[in-house]
């Protein structure tokens, strides 16, 4: 790839006292993309983000952001200067007012975008004088987004940005995110287990399970490549034995044999027809199905 | 502006004690005429008291010191009230590191800002130490002013020397609480452990009649003979610096 990757991890591992949170994770996030890290709770998403932002050190492997080693303290400061971050808990300073935390955060960034600050203060209807501890979860999320957007960052890292929000606020947050990214030249790296959110905003995804990426690529390519083949037999479905590459998962239930494939549908179909099914049907697959089949298949 | 965050986290732990100490000075000084007239009527059996153990010796020392206004201020304020309260307040200010999550929340937000962990820690230590210094200095300087109300005088040099000695020796407790706050995530364990250490140290010093941190804090050698306890102060500075360095190493290695 000619263009420099914004985020790159290679065989990244993180061990917390014998528990492996991240196990050989390989990620490549190109500039300008909205990259979603999908995974169940405890899959290693937050651990990965903490490593990328220098909050936690990898046990082994490599993590680079903007080409800088994330585990070097000085490089980590440089990375954070170019990155906006929203944590899952939206843990801001409870003692400060909205105005104070904005001024406080702005003091760290020479390129602070006052225009964006004013725009989002207005559109989010954030009360400047209210203490952060008195804000609702939705308001805190909006404030956290304002603080991340206004940094003038090249990279936004969002850890479960819509976690705990009602559908209306979730929609508002996602719309704002998409509109913001469309107007600014930036990369977004977000983690989520909300598949509909990811489906709505991401253009690239990685499904992470037990600390490693089990599926990765452009969302469109995944949607195009993944297919579900349903084979119905007159009698009991035979034991599947496909040799073609791309078979992710097979499931036999009575007369029906379901095959989930990630590529090479024609070759798999050729093998399937050799089993003499009564009917063959090829169906598109949703992101939710890809996620569930992949994660369940891994287990 | 890490210092601003440090100030917001600690301001009530500074302002409330400052208010208490400033008010305490008024009570102490306005009480002096009564104490002085009372002491004039007291005649102690010095030999019997000195042989009666720790308590007897303490009474003897107290009465002997408090026969002058300078001695009264030294004994009541620098040796007792400020040593004890100053220690407690220094521990309070040192507890709850900026990154421990016990001070206003937002640890992840703090760590996402482009400042090194050492910068956060240095700002927190500097603000806490500055507040500790003001906590002992302001009420002590107040003595020089308020003393005139009862027709007494207290030297500015005495107030400054005693305050600075108390502050420097007190930094040991501040730094211990600061170090422990990089180990424990809550505010209570650093606070309680450091207070426990201070109490044990104080009991050992008084019962074994040994030279220790509290003697350096009260600068008894300066009061008695005008000699500043340089060795004790130097040891205090070295111990504090070592613990602050330990805190910095701890935070640098820590995963959040």
Overview of this protein structure:
The complex is a heterodimer of chains A (299) and B (256). Chain A is α/β, with parallel strands linked by helices. Chain A has two domains: 7-217, P-loop containing nucleotide triphosphate hydrolases (Rossmann fold, 3-Layer(aba) Sandwich); 226-298. In chain A, 34% of the residues lie in helices and 29% in strands. Chain A has ten helices and 14 strands. Chain A has a six-stranded mixed beta sheet, sandwiched between helices. A four-stranded antiparallel beta sheet of chain A has the order 2-1-4-5, with helices on one face. Chain A has a four-stranded antiparallel beta sheet with strand order 12-13-11-14, with helices on both faces. In chain A, helix 4 runs antiparallel to helix 5 (137-149) and helix 5 packs parallel to helix 6 (167-183). Chain B has helices at 2-40, 46-50, 54-65, 69-94, 107-112, 117-146, 156-181, 188-208, 213-218, 220-225, 230-253. With 256 residues, chain B is mainly alpha-helical. Chain B is elongated. Chain B starts with a helix and ends with a helix. The A-B interface holds A 16, 50, 53-57, 73-74, 77-78, 80-81, 83, 85, 87, 89, 91-96, 104-105, 107-109, 144 and B 1, 4-5, 8-9, 104-109, 111-117, 252, 255-256.
């Amino acid at each position: 790839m000619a263009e420099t990757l914004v985020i790159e991890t290679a065989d990244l591992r993180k061990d917390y006292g014998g528990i492996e949170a991240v196990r050989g994770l390989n990620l490549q996030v190109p500039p300008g993309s909205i990259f979603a890290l999908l995974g169940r709770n405890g899959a290693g998403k937050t651990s990965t983000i903490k490593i990328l932002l220098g909050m936690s050190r990898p046990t082994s492997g490599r993590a680079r952001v903007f080409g800088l080693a994330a585990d070097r303290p000085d490089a980590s400061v440089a990375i954070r200067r170019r990155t906006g971050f929203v944590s899952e808990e939206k843990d801001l300073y409870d003692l400060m007012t909205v105005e104070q935390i904005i001024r406080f955060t702005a003091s760290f960034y020479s390129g602070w975008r006052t225009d964006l600050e004013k725009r989002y203060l207005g559109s989010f209807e954030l009360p400047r004088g209210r203490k952060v501890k008195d804000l609702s979860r939705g308001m805190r999320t909006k404030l956290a987004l304002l603080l991340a957007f206004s940094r003038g960052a090249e990279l936004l890292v969002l850890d479960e940005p819509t976690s705990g929000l009602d559908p209306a606020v979730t929609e508002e947050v996602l719309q704002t995110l998409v509109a913001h990214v469309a107007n600014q030249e930036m990369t977004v790296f977000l983690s989520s287990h909300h598949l509909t959110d990811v489906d709505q905003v991401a253009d690239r995804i990685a499904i992470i399970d037990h600390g490693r990426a089990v599926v990765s690529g452009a969302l469109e390519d995944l949607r195009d490549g993944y297919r579900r083949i349903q084979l119905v037999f007159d009698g009991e479905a035979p034991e599947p034995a496909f040799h073609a590459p791309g078979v992710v998962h097979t499931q036999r239930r009575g007369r029906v044999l379901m095959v989930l494939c990630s590529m090479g549908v024609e070759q798999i179909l050729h093998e399937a027809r050799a089993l003499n099914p009564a009917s063959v049907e090829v169906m598109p697959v949703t992101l939710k199905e890809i996620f569930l089949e992949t994660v369940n298949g891994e287990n | 502006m890490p210092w601003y965050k440090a100030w917001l986290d600690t301001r009530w732990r500074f302002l409330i004690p400052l208010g208490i100490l400033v008010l305490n000075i008024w009570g102490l000084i306005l009480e002096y005429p009564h104490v002085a007239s009372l002491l004039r009527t007291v005649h102690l059996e010095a030999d019997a008291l000195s042989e009666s153990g720790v308590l007897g010796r303490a009474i003897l020392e107290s009465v002997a010191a408090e026969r002058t206004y300078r001695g009264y201020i030294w004994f009541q304020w620098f040796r007792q009230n400020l040593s004890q309260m100053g220690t407690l307040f220094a521990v309070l200010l040192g507890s709850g590191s900026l990154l421990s999550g016990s001070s206003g929340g937002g640890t992840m937000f703090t760590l996402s800002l482009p400042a090194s962990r050492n910068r956060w820690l240095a700002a927190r230590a500097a603000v806490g130490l500055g507040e500790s210094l003001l906590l002992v200095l302001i009420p002590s300087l107040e003595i020089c002013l308020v003393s005139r109300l009862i027709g007494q005088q207290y030297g500015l040099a005495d107030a400054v020397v005693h305050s600075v000695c108390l502050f420097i020796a007190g930094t040991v407790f501040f730094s211990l609480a600061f170090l422990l706050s990089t180990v424990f995530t809550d505010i209570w364990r650093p606070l309680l452990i450091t207070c426990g250490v201070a109490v044990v140290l104080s009991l050992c010093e008084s019962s074994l009649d040994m030279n220790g941190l509290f003697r350096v804090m009260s600068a008894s050698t300066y009061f008695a003979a005008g000699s500043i306890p340089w060795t004790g102060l130097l040891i205090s500075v070295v111990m504090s610096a070592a613990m602050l360095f330990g805190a910095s190493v701890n935070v640098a290695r820590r995963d959040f």
